[in-house]
Write a structure and sequence with these properties.
Shape: globular
Number of helices: 6
CATH class: Alpha Beta
CATH architecture: 2-Layer Sandwich
Order of helices and strands: HEEHEHEHEEHH
CATH topology: TATA-Binding Protein
Strand content: 15-25%
Number of domains: 1
Strand order of the largest sheet: 1-2-6-5-4-3
Distance between the termini: 41 Å
Radius of gyration: 18 Å
Largest sheet: 6 strands, antiparallel
CATH superfamily: TT1751-like domain
Number of strands: 6
Structural class: alpha+beta
Helix content: 40-55%
Length: 154
């Protein structure tokens, strides 16, 4: 009897469980747990993005904004970044995708103290904007975003 299918099923189950514990996708968002604080995760993300030739357009600290008006908010930052070479390809497939570009990463601490990095799933955006003929650039964007997020959250 071949035991490989049973072994493969067990390994697959373990990998799926591990992946599910660290990465979540809801409502078009990909969410990864971070081992660092919000500020450190955002710093790591900026470093990774710049090293890969991405443009970091802005970093918004929503917690400081809340504080400036006498309110409180758990640590929450957004990093806005992109690359015109790939963004232009996507906008040529569907000009409306420009409303979701440049890319954004949300880094926030939940009420339990866990830090999360979230970003828009490019496949979700493709469906949202009825993008046709952009499979290759979308695949590249998905892979790059995943790598950036993995490095920033470890």
């Amino acid at each position: 009897m071949n035991k490989f299918p049973q072994f493969a099923a067990v390994v697959g189950s373990i990998l799926l469980t591990t992946f599910t514990l660290n990465v979540h996708a809801e409502d078009g968002l990909v969410r990864l747990k971070s081992v660092s604080s919000v500020a450190d995760t955002a710093d790591k993300l900026e470093t990774v993005l710049r090293a890969k030739g991405m443009t970091v357009f802005s970093r918004i600290n929503h917690s400081k904004g809340a504080e400036s008006v006498g309110l409180t908010l758990t640590p929450t930052e957004v990093v806005i970044f992109g690359n015109p070479k790939i963004g232009t390809l996507l906008m040529n497939c569907s000009p409306q995708v420009a409303i979701d570009l440049p890319q954004k990463a949300l880094i926030q601490q939940d009420k339990n103290g866990q830090v999360w990095l979230s970003y828009n799933d490019p496949q979700y955006l493709a469906g949202r904007h009825n993008m046709q003929g952009c499979e290759e650039p979308l695949k590249k964007v998905s892979g790059a975003l995943n790598k950036f997020a993995q490095k920033a959250t470890q």
